[in-house]
Design a protein that fits this description.
The complex is a heterodimer of chains A (378) and B (125).
Chain A lengths: L12 E2 L3 H6 L3 E5 L2 E6 L4 H10 L1 E5 L4 E6 L3 H6 L14 E7 L5 E9 L4 E5 L4 H12 L4 E4 L3 E7 L3 H8 L11 E6 L2 E6 L8 E7 H12 L4 E3 L2 H10 L41 H10 L3 E8 L10 E3 L5 E11 L4 E9 L8 E6 L2 E8 L12
Parallel strand pairs in A: 1-3, 4-14
Antiparallel strand pairs in A: 2-3, 4-10, 5-8, 5-9, 6-7, 7-8, 10-13, 11-12, 12-13, 15-18, 15-20, 16-17, 16-19, 17-18, 19-20
Helix pairs in contact in A: 2-7
Chain B lengths: L4 E2 L4 E5 L4 E6 L1 H7 L2 E5 L6 E2 L4 E7 L3 E5 L4 E6 L2 H4 L3 H4 L8 E5 L11 H9 L2
Antiparallel strand pairs in B: 1-2, 2-3, 3-9, 4-6, 5-8, 6-7, 8-9
The chains are: A alpha+beta (378), B alpha+beta (125).
C-alpha cells in the first residue's frame, strides 16, 4: 500500500500553538496555508470519541477573525449575506453565508455583535477573498481589523462547561450562541458558546502571546485532550454540519444546502429588508418553489466508507447526484456521508446508490444529524 | 532475522509450508494509515500479479490498497478483519495478516527487501 510523506517544499504559516502541537506529538499537515495538526498520537477515532465523552481542545487559529466597527457595518454585511445582522442583539451571534450573484455560497461564517464592533469568523481558505469583498462593501464608513495576532481555540464536549466553569464560573450559564469578553485565569479572552461538533462547547479568541499558556492550562485538566483536524471533520460530519469547499461552494445555494433557516423572515420576500443580497432572484425562487436538488444525509448500508466526489445513481445507473462529504463516523460506528440529490430522492428512507471503486453501493437517505446535537439550552 | 520480506509499499510476505506466503502490512504502514475501519478481501482463487491490488483498506481519513508482493493465487483470507479491522493496527505482523497466496515463482521473493534493508528504507523516508 502507498503512504506518501508530506511534501516539504510549500511555505506554510504557523499558528501560535505550533510548538505545542509538536510537543504533544501531533502529526502535522499543510492545510489552507498553515501547519495544522491532523491528529495526535492516540489517533483520530480516540480523539473523536473523547470529545463526545469528555472534552476536546482544538486549535482553529488558521481561521480568519475580523472586527468590523462603524455605523455601516451591519448594513454592509446584509448586502453580502441573506441574513439578519441589523437586529442581532449585543452579545449574540449567528451563522450565515456570503452569496454570489447566481445564489451560490462564497463562504460560511459566524458573526457576533460584540457591542463596539461586529466580529466575523471566516474559513481559512476563503479569508483573503472574503476580506477583499468586505472592504469593498463597507467602504470608508467602517474600520476593518484582521486579528492576525490572535489565536482561536475550541473546547468541545460534555465536560467543556465544567472545565471552563472551574476557571470562570460565570461561563457555566452562558447561553448557546452568545459571546462575552471574559478573563480566564487572568488572560483576557473573547468566549462564545458555540462550536462545530454538535456538542456543548466554547470557542475562545485569545492573543497569540497567551494562547499556549491558555491551551496548557486547559490541557492540564484530565478531562481535556488535544484534538486535530481529522477528528474535527468526523465530528462535524456526524453532527450534519456543512464544510465549505465540500458541501457548500459557489454552485450550491443556501436553500439547496438546507440552510434556508439562516435566511431570516425580514430578508425574505415581503420582509422589511427583503433582498438586497447577491443571488436574491434565484434564492427567492427556490424559497417559493423548492430547489431542484437538496443536501441530504446518507447511511451506506455496507461497511465501505463513501467519500466526497462519489457519484450517486439510481437503480438504472443514471446520475442523480453527488457525495460532498463522507467518512467513517466513530460514534455512529458506521460510514456516514452527505451529498446532493435531485429533490425527488430527498425523502428519508429513499435508497440511492453511491459508486465506489466502480460499484454501486446502496445507501439510505436519512435526516441529519447522524448523532443528536447536545447544545446547551439552559 | 526473520524470513519476512518487504516491499517498498510496506507490505510483508512470510513463506509458510512450501509455496504458501502470508501477506500483511508493516507497523510503519498501519501507523501512517491510522486505525482501519474497513477491509475488503479478495476472493479465494483470485489470481494476483506481483504489485497488483489485492485488498482494499480504509482508515477514517483515507482509502488504500494492499498490493500482492509477488504473483500468486489467493488460497485463504483473514475473514475476521471484516468485523475487526483494527486487528491490523494492533498486530500488523501477526493476527493482522490479510491473505495467504500460493506463490507462482518463489524467485520473485529475491527482489524484495529483507528486514534490515526495510528498516534502513523506512529510516530514510
Amino acid at each position: 500500500m502507498s503512504v506518501t510523506p508530506e511534501p516539504r517544499t510549500v511555505f506554510l504559516a504557523k499558528t501560535p500553538l505550533y510548538d505545542l502541537h509538536l510537543e504533544l506529538g501531533a502529526r502535522m499537515v499543510g492545510f489552507a496555508g498553515y501547519h495544522m495538526p491532523v491528529q495526535y498520537p492516540h489517533g483520530i477515532i480516540h480523539e473523536h470519541l473523547h470529545t463526545r465523552a469528555a472534552a476536546g481542545l482544538f486549535d482553529v487559529s488558521h481561521m480568519g477573525q475580523v472586527r468590523i466597527s462603524g455605523d455601516g457595518a451591519a448594513r454592509a454585511l446584509e448586502a453580502m449575506a441573506p441574513m439578519d445582522v441589523a437586529d442581532l442583539a449585543v452579545g449574540h451571534m449567528r451563522y450565515g453565508v456570503f452569496t454570489a450573484d447566481g445564489g451560490g455560497i462564497l463562504d460560511d461564517f459566524m458573526v457576533t455583535n460584540a457591542g463596539q464592533y461586529l466580529t466575523l469568523v471566516i474559513n481559512a481558505a476563503c479569508k483573503a477573498d472574503d476580506l477583499k469583498r468586505i472592504r469593498a462593501a463597507v467602504g470608508d464608513g467602517c474600520q476593518i481589523d484582521e486579528l492576525t495576532d490572535h489565536a482561536l481555540l475550541a473546547l468541545q464536549g460534555p465536560a467543556a462547561c465544567s472545565v471552563l466553569g472551574a476557571i470562570a464560573p460565570a461561563l457555566a450559564d452562558m447561553p448557546f450562541m452568545t459571546a462575552a469578553d471574559v478573563e480566564l485565569a487572568g488572560i483576557v479572552c473573547a468566549v462564545s458558546r458555540s462550536g462545530y461538533t454538535g456538542e456543548d462547547g466554547f470557542e475562545i479568541s485569545v492573543s497569540a502571546a497567551e494562547a499556549a499558556d491558555l491551551a496548557k492550562m486547559l490541557l492540564a485538566n484530565d478531562a481535556v485532550a488535544p484534538v486535530g483536524l481529522g477528528a474535527r471533520d468526523s465530528l462535524r460530519l456526524e453532527a450534519g454540519l456543512c464544510l465549505y469547499g465540500h458541501d457548500l461552494n459557489p454552485q450550491t445555494t443556501p436553500v439547496e444546502a438546507g440552510l434556508g433557516w439562516t435566511i431570516a423572515q425580514v430578508r425574505r420576500s415581503g420582509g422589511e429588508r427583503a433582498g438586497g443580497f447577491p443571488g436574491e432572484a434565484r434564492i427567492f425562487q427556490q424559497l417559493a418553489e423548492g430547489p431542484s436538488r437538496r443536501l441530504v444525509g446518507l447511511r451506506p448500508q455496507g461497511k465501505a466508507p463513501v467519500r466526497a466526489d462519489a457519484d450517486l445513481v439510481d437503480s438504472d445507473g443514471s446520475s442523480i447526484g453527488i457525495v460532498t462529504s463522507g467518512s467513517f463516523g466513530p460514534t455512529v460506528g458506521a460510514p456516514v456521508a452527505m451529498g446532493y440529490v435531485g429533490s425527488e430522492y430527498r425523502k428519508p428512507g429513499t435508497i440511492v446508490r453511491a459508486v465506489v471503486r466502480g460499484k454501486p453501493l446502496p445507501a439510505e437517505v436519512v435526516r441529519l444529524p447522524f448523532v443528536e446535537r447536545r447544545y446547551y439550552r439552559g | 532475522m526473520s524470513a519476512m520480506k518487504f516491499t517498498k509499499d510496506h507490505e510483508w510476505i512470510l513463506m509458510e509450508d512450501g509455496d504458501i506466503g502470508v501477506v500483511g502490512i508493516t507497523d510503519y504502514a498501519q501507523d501512517q494509515l491510522g486505525e482501519l475501519v474497513y477491509v475488503e478481501l479478495p476472493e479465494i482463487d483470485q489470481v494476483l500479479g506481483g504489485g497488483s491490488d489485492a485488498v482494499v483498506i480504509e482508515s477514517v481519513k483515507a482509502a488504500g490498497e494492499v498490493k500482492a508482493p509477488v504473483s500468486g493465487s489467493v488460497v485463504e483470507v483473514n475473514e475476521s478483519l471484516v468485523d475487526e479491522p483494527e486487528k491490523v493496527n494492533n498486530d500488523p505482523t501477526g493476527d493482522g495478516w490479510f491473505i495467504k497466496i500460493k506463490v507462482t515463482d518463489v524467485k520473485e521473493l529475491d527482489e524484495l527487501m529483507d528486514e534490515d534493508a526495510y528498516k534502513e528504507y523506512i529510516d530514510e523516508l
